[in-house]
């Protein structure tokens, strides 16, 4: 028997033993789950029988409350145990399919023998609960597997560094308990497991990478020192993957201290959210909160004011005529992204402490209860050392009091009486019963009057309620007017085109629609006036595709999440929004001058084959530093067509050719949504293709048509770049968009161009 064959047999034998142990543990757990479930059901059913309810005397009430509390605590504890056992059972089930993926033999300094350490998605103890049969990939010792090849190695523990010698590093492919692959590092130079994983089809759901995490990714996953970790990683270098495994790692590391709902991920769009939603559950963890900045803006602005979304802004910049209006808009977009503009707002807020706040009349049925002028007087009558938000609170309390007094008077008005007469029988009876409550034995002669009074009060209150809610929401501040005033007031703004920008913005605000670039500044200003509704609970914030946020937005996030450590990941070569063109992004070190920040860089790209990466390297400056992972494939192709008919035929032909490859996902990528719609009209008769737009919430298998900016962060088996002509892609703002599109495929990339192909690939 060869040595290799022997190893294989021994490992298969060990897998069998481990599987037996898993089965054994599952059996024991099932019993426990069953018992606890029985207890929970019993407790729920008999909840009221087991508490002593006695409300006669004060002491009895206290006793009853205590007894209720005890019973509820018992139930809560049992329910938690049930969930805990159930989760363990699920982990064991997952382990049964693939108990572990790696092994290192590590001899600690001074020891004679090496310990065999097997690494999987969860830990498993032996029968006597003494030794680890499998270590969780997040355990300190598991780091050895990711960080070293055989030779001297070390890992960190809370007690300090452990040094020693790694004698063996082995990777496994196990499917349903059968050993399918075994690779020893040192014997094979290439990472075969990674080759195998990356050679598979792209998926509509991102997969976990725990079996093949690379050293530099492991650093990001486990890093836990500074408040800010900033990761600049080239396309396909595993930024999103690292972010998600990092969440899983932190949940493990701080188990019992931090929950998934104290972590939040901001991602580019809902489709991306659905793309990554499976990774954490696959690792046996709950998902963190996931959102998009668009969702946040929607929530904040509700129906108060309409605003343009980021994609509409981009669509405008990529498709509109480049006249003076366009140029001013572009300058405005770029200026408003900056911290200089934040300074302008900060100084405006200082002025507002003394003058300039604009309020709304508080009205009820056409009558003014408190006029904007009165509010203004009251506000500026308060001491000016009191902060604006505190003064606003005082104003709200004062208005509410005025409303109360007004309500009392209003009850005598004719309209109230009319409403009473119009009351439905049901409503009337409800109020009537209220009047009767507790007075069955009393013979009251004034019942009618009392009844009328209660009815009148109920009616006025009903109409007053929404007004009160608005006051509590501080909607008596005329935010739009205050923001607009920023563009009409006399103010020294150090920007050569400020006048034109201000004029344009002012004009736009009159239509009651905020430009996208004004939304963050608007919300920031609002927070300075109303007080910040910060997310104090969030302990870890993840910003993916961070290059698309502005420096202003970064400051906004810092203010919004005061207690959060931030992991900020992105690629400046994929910055597709105009505000970040040749300007700082949240990936720029200069934005963290006074704060503790760790910058990490990922240069190795895993998504695409080597020929595709070699091709895309040429598109962006500095691309020569990108290192391809060595996976073979066909070189990208470029086809030039003379007219649309030829272009369409060529694209359709390629789509048909690719049917043989049985790919799961093929994307035809266009520059904009407008072009995607046009392409759809041209292609829909010949191929079965789905058009995706910004409202698409899930990413499904098949052939899709998508604008480049929506394809951010996701990947496909093959990509057809629709009309990669020089006419389409020649401005600097289009370079990164083109690069983003070309870096989406795993296996094939084909470019089609109407006329001369883009200069970016020359
Ligand atoms: N260590 C790894 N093991 C296995 N697959 C990996 C690894 N790192 C990255 N990948 C794969 O490479 C692809 C790209 O990863 P990911 O989407 O996380 O990269 P990214 O840096 O966020 O990309 P982009 O900026 O282009 O959106 C994914 O298919 C991911 O599974």
From TrEMBL:
Record PROSITE patterns: UVRD_HELICASE_ATP_BIND (PS51198)
An annotated GO BP: recombinational repair
UniProt domain UvrD-like helicase ATP-binding: residue ranges: 212-609
GO molecular function: 3'-5' DNA helicase activity; ATP binding; DNA binding; hydrolase activity
Coiled coil start-end: 12-39
Binding-site list for ATP: 233-240
Keyword Coiled coil set for record: yes
GO CC terms of this entry: cytosol
Key words of the record: ATP-binding, Coiled coil, Helicase, Hydrolase, Nucleotide-binding
Cross-referenced Pfam families: UvrD-helicase
InterPro entries listed in its UniProt record: DNA_helicase_UvrD/REP, HelD_bacillota, P-loop_NTPase, UvrD-like_ATP-bd
Matches recorded under PANTHER family: DNA HELICASE IV, UVRD / RECB / PCRA DNA HELICASE FAMILY MEMBER
Name of protein: Helicase
Species of origin: Pontibacillus marinus BH030004 = DSM 16465
């Amino acid at each position: 028997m060869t040595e290799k064959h022997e190893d294989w047999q021994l490992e298969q034998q060990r897998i069998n033993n481990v599987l037996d142990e898993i089965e054994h543990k599952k059996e024991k757990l099932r019993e426990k789950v069953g018992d606890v479930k029985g207890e929970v059901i019993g407790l729920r059913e008999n909840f009221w029988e087991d508490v002593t309810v006695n409300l006669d005397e004060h002491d009895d009430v206290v006793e009853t409350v205590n007894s209720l509390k005890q019973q509820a605590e018992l139930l809560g504890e049992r329910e938690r145990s049930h969930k805990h056992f159930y989760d363990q059972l699920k982990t064991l089930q997952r382990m049964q399919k693939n108990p572990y993926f790696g092994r290192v033999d590590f001899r600690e300094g001074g020891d004679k023998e090496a310990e065999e350490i097997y690494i999987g998605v969860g830990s498993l103890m032996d029968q006597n609960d003494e030794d680890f049969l499998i270590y969780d990939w997040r355990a300190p010792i598991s780091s050895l597997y990711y960080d070293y090849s055989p030779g001297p190695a070390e890992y960190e523990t809370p007690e300090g560094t452990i040094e020693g010698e790694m004698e063996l590093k082995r990777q496994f492919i196990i499917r349903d308990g059968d050993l399918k692959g075994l690779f020893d590092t040192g014997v094979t130079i290439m990472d075969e497991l990674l080759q195998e994983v990356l050679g598979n089809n792209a998926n509509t759901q991102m997969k976990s990478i725990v079996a093949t995490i690379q050293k530099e990714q492991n650093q990001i996953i486990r890093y836990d020192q500074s408040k800010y970790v900033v990761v600049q990683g080239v396309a396909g270098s595993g930024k999103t993957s690292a972010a998600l495994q990092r969440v899983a790692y932190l949940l493990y590391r701080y188990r019992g201290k931090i929950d998934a709902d104290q972590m939040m991920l901001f991602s580019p769009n809902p489709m991306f959210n659905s793309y990554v939603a499976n990774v954490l559950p696959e690792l046996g963890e709950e998902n963190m909160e996931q959102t998009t900045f668009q969702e946040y803006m929607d929530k904040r602005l509700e129906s108060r004011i309409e605003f343009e979304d980021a994609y509409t802004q981009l669509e405008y910049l990529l498709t509109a005529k480049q006249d003076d209006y366009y140029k001013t808009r572009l300058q405005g977009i770029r200026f408003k992204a900056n911290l200089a503009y934040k300074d302008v707002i900060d100084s405006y807020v200082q002025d507002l402490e003394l003058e300039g706040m604009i309020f709304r009349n508080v009205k009820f049925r056409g009558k003014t209860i408190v006029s904007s002028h009165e509010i203004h007087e009251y506000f500026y009558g308060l001491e000016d050392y009191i902060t604006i938000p505190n003064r606003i609170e005082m104003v709200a309390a004062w208005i509410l009091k005025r409303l109360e007094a007004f309500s009392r008077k209003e009850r005598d008005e004719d309209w109230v009486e009319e409403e009473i007469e119009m009351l439905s029988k049901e409503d009337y009876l409800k109020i009537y019963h209220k009047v009767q409550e507790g007075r069955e034995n009393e013979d009251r002669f004034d019942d009618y009057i009392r009844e009328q009074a209660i009815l009148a009060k109920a009616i006025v209150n009903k109409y007053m309620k929404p007004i009160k809610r608005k006051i509590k929401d501080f909607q008596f501040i005329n935010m739009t007017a205050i923001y607009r005033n920023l563009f009409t007031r006399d103010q020294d703004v150090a920007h050569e085109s400020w006048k034109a920008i201000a004029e344009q913005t002012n004009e736009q605000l009159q239509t009651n629609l905020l430009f996208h670039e004004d939304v963050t500044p608007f919300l920031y200003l609002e927070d300075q006036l109303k007080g910040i509704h910060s997310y104090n609970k969030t302990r870890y914030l993840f910003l993916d595709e961070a290059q698309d946020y502005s420096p202003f937005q970064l400051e906004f996030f810092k203010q919004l999440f005061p207690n959060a450590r931030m992991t900020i990941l992105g690629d400046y070569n994929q910055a597709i929004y105009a505000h970040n063109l040749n300007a700082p992004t949240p990936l720029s070190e200069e934005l963290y001058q006074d704060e503790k920040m760790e910058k990490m860089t990922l240069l190795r790209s895993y998504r695409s084959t080597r020929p595709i990466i070699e091709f895309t390297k040429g598109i962006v400056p500095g691309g020569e530093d990108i290192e391809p992972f060595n996976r073979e494939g066909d070189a990208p192709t470029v086809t030039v067509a003379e007219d649309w008919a030829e272009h369409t035929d060529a694209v359709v032909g390629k789509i048909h050719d690719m049917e043989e490859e049985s790919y799961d996902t093929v994307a035809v990528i266009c520059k904009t949504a407008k072009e995607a719609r046009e392409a759809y009209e041209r292609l829909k008769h010949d191929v079965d293709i789905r058009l995706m737009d910004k409202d698409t919430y899930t990413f499904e298998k098949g052939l899709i048509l998508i604008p480049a900016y929506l394809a951010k962060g996701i990947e496909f088996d093959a990509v057809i770049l629709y009309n990669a002509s020089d006419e389409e892609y020649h401005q600097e703002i289009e370079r990164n968009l083109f690069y983003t599109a070309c870096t989406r495929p795993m296996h094939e990339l084909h470019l089609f161009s109407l006329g001369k192909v883009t200069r970016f690939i020359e």
